Every structure is written in C-alpha cells, then in structure tokens.
C-alpha cells in the first residue's frame, strides 16, 4: 500500500456514475500517476466531464471511491475534503474569469482567500504567475480585452496561484485556433516540469492527446466503462479494440 501511495496521486476504485437510473459509466478503476499527465478521453457523451466532476468532489459517486494520496475523499469529513481540494487547481473549459475584474484581480482571488500574504506579496506572486503563462505586463487588462487563448492562459495563471500539486484541465483546447491550442499544450508540459505537478486533462482533441499524454484512459460510450488504458501512442500502435482505433485515427468524426 505504501508503494502505491507514493506512485499514484489519485486512485479511482470501482466508480459508477449515474443520474437516477441512467448509468453513465460503471466500474471505473484506474490510477493517475504522480508527476505525469493523464488524459481522460473518449467520444462525445461518454462521461468525460462527468468523471472530472466526480474527481473534483463536485458530485458524489453512485458507487466506488475516489482516493487522493491514498485517502478516501468521500470518506473524509468536510474540513479534510476542503484541505485536499486546496492542493488542487482547475482550468475550466470556459476559463471562468470574472469579467468585471482585471487579470491581476482574478489571479489574486485564491491568494487573498487562502493565504495571509501581504498585498505587496500577492502582487508579486500575481505578476510571477502571469509571467509563467506568457502574460507578463497584462495585469491591468480585463478578460474582454484578450483573445480566447490569452483568456485561457490567464485562467491557468489563477489555477496555479496556490502552487497546486494536481492540476485538472477540462477541454483546454476548446474554442482555440490550432496555434493557441498548441501553445497551451506546451504550457501544460512546461508546468509539469516546473511545478512537478500531476496533471489530468479531459479532452477529445487528438493533437493534444498525443502532445501531452503520458498515460490515458478511454471511456467507451457503448460499453459504458474503461476499455483501454496506457500511453496514447502505444494505444494508437496497438489498439485493443475497434472503437479505440477509430477514436485515435478518426477521432473528430466521433465528437
């Protein structure tokens, strides 16, 4: 058990996701290796974003467990769950920036809420985080003044404000042009190296899957369970079934 806790940041055990009697996915069991990028992939409607919400503690599983560093998230009390969540950063698909706030004010929010840093220290950290995502000098800009790719990077700066140990990305390339999407993939890899973070990416974009994924989990919308796991390039070279092969070679047609 000790060895597993050292190598797996997150473990999903026999997880079933359902809305009422409608089962989305069943009996999901997999690990998210520490310090790696794990991609959750599959066609539209397979339950990728639903799984993300379960992993983030937003939805309680119908059955099964979500473990962080060996600790059962839903078996812990509320204070302990909050403590775990403070070690996590999230980049939502929409970015979820406050439009009435500047980038500096957006990035400062978690620092003001969860730390006792002085205003000067917060300002310095905000500038550092924005610089890390290529937005040095944009502190006083509002989200509406930026391109879609820049807004995603600003939201990423906020997600890493507290130096999270785990970073979640929900369809990070959605709505971006190929150049901006590639830049965001590069940022994900840079953050893995600079922060030593464990990263979970929910996406159906093949370019991103192959660019960033060390490990992957394929959610099958027909079988309603995991039908493939492993490095994406290995699954492409040796697909375990036809739906995985189709997704990884003609994935766009499934979404």
What does the model show?
The chain is an alpha/beta fold and 255 residues long. It has a domain at 94-163. The protein is built from 10 helices and 10 strands. It has a 6-stranded mixed β-sheet. Strands 2-1-4-5 form a 4-stranded antiparallel β-sheet. Strand 1 and strand 2 (22-33) form a beta hairpin. The longest helix is centred in the last third of the chain and has 18 residues, at 178-195. The protein is globular and about 55 Å long. 36% of the residues are buried. Residues 1-6 and 251-255 have low confidence and may be disordered.
Averaged pLDDT: 89
- So what's the overall shape? globular
Share in β-strands: 15-25%
Structural class: alpha/beta
Low-confidence stretches: 1-6, 251-255
- The end-to-end span amounts to 39 Å
- Using only C-alpha atoms, the radius of gyration works out to 18 Å
DSSP helix count?
10
SSE run: HEEEHEEHEHHHEHEHEEHH
Strand order in space, largest sheet? 6-7-8-3-9-10
Write down the oligomeric state.
single chain
Question: Mind describing the biggest β-sheet?
Answer: 6 strands, mixed
Number of strands: 10
The proportion of residues forming helix, as a percent range, comes to: 25-40%
Question: Summarize this, please?
Answer:
Helix content is 39%, strand content 25%. With 255 residues, the protein is α/β, with parallel strands linked by helices.
Q: What's the SSE blueprint?
A:
Elements: H1 2-7, E1 8-19, E2 22-33, E3 37-41, H2 48-55, E4 63-68, E5 71-72, H3 78-85, E6 88-91, H4 103-114, H5 119-132, H6 148-159, E7 166-170, H7 178-195, E8 198-202, H8 206-212, E9 215-220, E10 225-230, H9 232-237, H10 242-250
Parallel strand pairs: 3-8, 3-9, 6-7, 7-8
Antiparallel strand pairs: 1-2, 1-4, 4-5, 9-10
Helix pairs in contact: 4-5, 4-6, 5-6, 7-8
């Amino acid at each position: 058990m000790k060895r597993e806790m050292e190598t797996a940041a997150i473990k999903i055990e026999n997880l079933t996701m359902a809305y009422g009697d409608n089962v989305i996915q069943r009996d999901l069991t997999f690990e998210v290796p520490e310090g790696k990028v794990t991609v959750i992939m599959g066609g539209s409607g397979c339950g990728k974003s639903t799984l993300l919400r379960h992993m983030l503690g937003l939805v309680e599983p119908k059955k099964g467990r979500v473990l962080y560093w060996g600790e059962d998230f839903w078996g812990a009390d509320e204070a302990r769950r909050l403590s775990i969540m403070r070690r996590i950063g999230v980049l939502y698909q929409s970015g979820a920036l406050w439009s009435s706030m500047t980038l500096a004010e957006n990035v400062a929010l978690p620092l003001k809420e969860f730390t006792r840093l002085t205003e000067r220290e917060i300002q310095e950290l905000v500038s550092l985080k924005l610089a890390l995502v290529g937005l040095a000098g944009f502190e006083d800009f509002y989200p509406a003044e930026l391109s879609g790719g820049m807004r995603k990077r600003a939201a990423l700066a906020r997600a890493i404000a507290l130096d999270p140990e785990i970073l979640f990305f929900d369809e990070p390339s959605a709505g971006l042009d190929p150049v901006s999407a590639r830049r965001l993939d590069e940022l994900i890899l840079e953050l893995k190296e600079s922060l030593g973070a464990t990263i979970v990416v929910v996406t159906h974009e093949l370019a991103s899957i192959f660019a960033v994924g060390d490990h992957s989990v394929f959610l099958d919308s027909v079988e309603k369970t995991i039908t493939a796991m492993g490095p994406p390039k290995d699954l492409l070279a040796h697909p375990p079934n036809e739906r995985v092969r189709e997704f990884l070679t003609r994935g766009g047609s499934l979404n």
